[in-house]
Amino acid sequence: MTSQYLEFREADNSGRKTKRFHIYNKRTNEFLGTIQFLGAWRRYVVNPRKDIIFDSVCLDDISTFLKELTAEWKESLKNEK
């Protein structure tokens, strides 16, 4: 997924069953938060760094990325059967 302001970089996922990503500001390279799978909710969630704010454009991009990751995870479950 491409975003005008954000970059989603896959984190070190060794030893993990699901992927984890870090969110960075494209212009400043500032770390903004983490995206990871929350088993209790059975979906990907965002954990922003303290005191980070997002506008509606960035929130839309994050939401789209979360939906894509969750759909990919659900598809992988179908392929395991």
Question: Helices, strands, pairings?
Answer:
Elements: E1 6-10, E2 21-25, E3 31-38, E4 43-48, H1 56-80
Antiparallel strand pairs: 1-2, 2-3, 3-4
Write a structural description.
The structure is a single chain. This protein is an alpha+beta fold and about 80 residues long. It has one domain. About 30% of the residues lie in helices and about 30% in strands. The protein has one helix and four strands. The protein has a four-stranded antiparallel beta sheet with strand order 1-2-3-4, covered by helices on one side. The longest helix is centred in the last third of the chain and has 25 residues, at about 55-80. The chain starts with 5 loop residues before the first strand and ends with a helix.
Main attributes?
single chain; 81 residues; alpha+beta; 4-stranded antiparallel β-sheet; 31% helix; 30% strand
